[in-house]
Amino acid sequence: MILNTSLQATAYVVHRLQHLPTTLGSCQLKALWLAENQAQPLISFQQDVDEETGEKVLTCFLLPQQAYTESMGNDEKIFS
Length: 80
Prior knowledge:
Blueprint: E1 9-11, E2 20-21, E3 31-33, E4 46-49, E5 56-59, E6 68-72, E7 75-79
Parallel strand pairs: 1-3
Antiparallel strand pairs: 2-5, 4-5, 6-7
């Protein structure tokens, strides 16, 4: 995956990501949103290895993302 290194902000909320590509680390990001209730615009990432592909990836405490559930009274909506 090739990323534009001038990218400064991006959001991946409700995408069910397992991890992020290491190329994202070369961007000078000011904000990377992974959750609606994320307290800070940037969080710390660790390098890991994807067990399925053997590729180096970035991960953090917000990954892997889960299915988004929003309770609305008696109704429950699940976004996947």
